[in-house]
Design goal:
Layout lengths: L7 H85 L21
């Protein structure tokens, strides 16, 4: 028998090895695709839950910020009103204190005026 010519049993063995490798590759590919789909669905559910919680927290923050802004706007308006009245009285030479109705701020006369 010539050693350079393959026999049918060697060819059959290579075909069988190729078939087995192909089947193992197919099974591995299917299992990995199922794993990828399962992981993506799991992480999507978790991210949706976190997104819902984050939206609720942002809504709370927005509500708090609006209430703080509204409070500060009224306080700043009163502070500005009291400041303008104090400056007007000081400029016109009016009284040295302001009424308690406008603000509870006492303006002292400057020395030498």
């Amino acid at each position: 028998m010539n050693p350079s010519v393959p026999t049918s049993s060697v060819i059959l063995d290579l075909n069988m090895v190729s078939f087995v490798v192909g089947v193992v590759s197919l099974i591995t590919s299917v299992l990995l695709s199922w794993l990828a789909i399962w992981l993506s669905l799991r992480f999507k559910g978790e991210s949706d839950r976190v997104n819902t919680e984050t939206r609720a927290l942002l809504m709370d923050i927005r509500t708090d910020a609006k209430s703080i802004s509204a409070f500060m706007a009224s306080e700043m308006a009163e502070y500005g009103k009291a400041g303008r009245q104090a400056m007007t009285r000081a400029y016109l030479g009016g009284g040295s204190t302001m009424s308690a109705e406008s603000a509870s701020v006492e303006v002292k006369d400057q020395p030498g005026s």
